[in-house]
Structure formats: C-alpha cells, structure tokens
Structure to design on (373 residues):
C-alpha cells in the first residue's frame, strides 16, 4: 500500500499538540508496516528525525502553510498536484484539513471544532476559513477520526456528519512523563519556583484556555491562604492575550506568578511531575492532553467540568466550573491544604492515564485506513 501523509507541523524541538499527535502515530505506523510505502508531504525543509523508516519518502511541497491564503494554496493546489503524481492508495491528514480537489481516498483527523463555540476568539480571516472549509472537509473525507466521544458528538450534532463515519482514537502522554522522587522535585522547584511548591498550567495562552480566571482565582486563593505556593504558566502567548497581561498587571501576587514561555520536551516532564497539582481549567477542549500527562506523572489534576474534560479525567480529577472564579479558587485551596485528596487523585490519575496509549491511537487510525482501502 502507498500512503501519502500530510506531515506539516512536524517541526524539530517545536512539537506541540497536533504535531506531537502526528509524530507518535506515524512512527508507530511506519515501524509496524515495512511493507507499505509512505509519502510524507512537508511544507518546508524537514528534519531527518521525522523519517521513521527506509520506506518513507519525503517530499517538500511549497508554499509553507501558516496562513489561511497559504492553507488554501497548499491543500487545494499544491497537495493535489503531488497526490496526482505519486498516486497513493490513501491520503492521511491529521490536522483537521484535507483536499477538496483531490479524489484520493482520504482519512482526516479532527481534534475539535472550537471555532464553532468560540468564534470571536479566532482572527477574522482564520474564522472565515474554518467556517467555510471545515464542513466541506468533513463531508469530503471518506472517514473521520477524532480524539474523544465528546468531539464525535459535537461534530455530528453541529455538521450532521453520520456518527458511523467518525471513529474515536483518543490521545496519550509521552512515556517520559513519570513520577519523580522528592529529591528531584526539590531541584525542579528550586530552579523554577524559588524552591516553593507550585500549581502548573500548560497550554497556549489563548482566551479559550481561561488564563484570566485562573489568575484571578490564584489571587483569591493567595489572599485567603498563608501558603507560599506559586503559579507556573507554561506555553506561548497566542493571539488576543491583552486580557491575560492586564490580569497579571492587576494581580497583587505578581511575584508568585511565573510565565515560563514555551517549555522544551526535555523540561516539560520534570516541571509537570514536580507540581503540587495541574490546574487546567480551559473553557473548551477536544481532549486536553496535559490532563493525561500530569496523571501519568502522578500529579493531582484540577480541570473543567465542561466539553471533553470530564470524559478524559473520569473520576480521577477535581472538576470545577471554569466560569466561576470562586470555585476555581476553592479548588486551589483544597489541593493546597488536603494532602489526602492529593494522594487520592494521584493514585486514581495513574490508573486513568494507563488507559490512554499511543498504541491504541495508532491501532484505530490503522484500522480506519485498512477499512477504507
């Protein structure tokens, strides 16, 4: 079988979200199937580390696509030309896009349809692109894969896509997320949190991630508590972050809030595993990978009671209403003061995380490809 794959977002030392998903799935598919030929379509010069076997052929397909106009040129003109040249049996696209102009059988992975629920938190041109193309992509794809049952229902309900066309593959954490001993945790806390215990958030600093309410809740927690606990926020600033900066400027506890920026793959597991708790109170997620990463590292989790997060967390997290600052603050206080609760959540989280594996994710996508071809 010849499988063409959209491999844009496979960027060395910059694997985030969807890029990580592609990396974990593709290396498993390539390792499992030396008999198949894989055509990897990159939109810029690539790193050889992403060529997972001798049966992988890399093709650079310009233009680099990081803008709606370039998305259109890439998926509707450049990619169809390359697919026509190589004549694959299937086209696998795992970032929520596919090609309307290509007749190659297509499997598309969609991670969420957040633009439907929070349209004003997306730049205008990007919003228009999603509104126009996403329903057409979902209808064009022969099979759709997504990452949670919540996402499958959301896609089906909003766009009328038959549920039997959508498979759920899930997500997982990298094996490097493991519990750390007390000595190593102390080193991390000295390096990043002035030697103090800390809550940790990881993700893009985007309005949908609810950072403003988290900052206000942390302020409220600190005003009620004598705890020296810090708040570490890992992730790059995204579009529309002026409210986050304003909330930080207004905080009475700025010295206890540390913005880490982008956290490397090497440091992220250490920072996660040394946290007092993960505080992931996003307004909307298709899955919420940091939840599973923290659980696998033995770290208690507080997350939102909306969208996919209760499904992913099961009974292994403290759930709060992400729109209620008081409720988030109360959750922070419980986590800071109740050691028995932290122990219980840590134990449950380890068991919960074990149910999510990249092997299962790859199994689902592999079976969808087989069924289609």
């Amino acid at each position: 079988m010849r499988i063409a794959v959209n491999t844009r977002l496979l960027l060395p030392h910059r694997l985030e979200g969807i890029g990580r998903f592609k990396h974990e799935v593709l290396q498993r598919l390539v390792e499992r199937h030396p008999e198949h030929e894989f055509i990897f379509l990159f939109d810029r010069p690539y790193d050889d580390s992403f060529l997972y076997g001798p049966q992988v052929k890399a093709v650079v397909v310009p233009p680099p696509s990081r803008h709606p106009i370039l998305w259109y040129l890439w998926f509707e003109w450049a990619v169809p030309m390359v697919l026509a040249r190589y004549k694959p049996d299937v086209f696998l696209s795992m970032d929520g896009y596919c090609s309307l102009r290509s007749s190659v059988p297509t499997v598309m992975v969609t991670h969420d349809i957040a633009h439907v629920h929070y349209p004003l938190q997306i730049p205008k041109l990007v919003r228009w692109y999603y509104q126009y193309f996403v329903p057409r992509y979902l209808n064009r794809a022969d099979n759709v894969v997504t990452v949670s049952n919540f996402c499958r229902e959301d896609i089906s309900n909003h766009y009328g896509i038959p549920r039997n066309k959508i498979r759920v593959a899930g997500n997982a954490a990298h094996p490097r997320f493991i519990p750390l001993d007390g000595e190593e945790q102390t080193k991390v806390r000295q390096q990043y949190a002035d030697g103090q215990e800390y809550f940790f958030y990881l993700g893009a600093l985007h309005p949908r991630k609810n950072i403003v309410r988290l900052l206000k809740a942390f302020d409220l927690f600190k005003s009620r508590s004598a705890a020296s606990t810090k708040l570490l926020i890992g992730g790059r600033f995204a579009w529309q972050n002026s409210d986050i900066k304003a909330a930080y400027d207004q905080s009475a506890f700025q010295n206890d809030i540390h913005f880490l920026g982008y956290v490397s793959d090497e440091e992220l597991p250490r920072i996660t595993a040394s946290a007092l708790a993960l505080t992931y109170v996003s307004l909307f997620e298709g899955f919420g990978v940091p939840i599973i990463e923290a659980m696998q590292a033995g770290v208690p989790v507080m997350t939102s009671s909306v969208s996919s997060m209760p499904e992913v967390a099961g009974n292994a997290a403290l759930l709060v209403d992400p729109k209620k600052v008081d409720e988030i603050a109360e959750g922070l206080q419980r986590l800071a003061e109740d050691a028995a609760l932290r122990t219980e959540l840590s134990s449950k989280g380890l068991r919960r995380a074990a149910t999510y594996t990249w092997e299962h994710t790859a199994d689902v996508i592999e079976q969808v490809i087989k069924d289609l071809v």
In short: The chain is about 45% helix and 15% strand. The first strand starts at residue 2 and ends at 6. The chain has a mean pLDDT of 96.
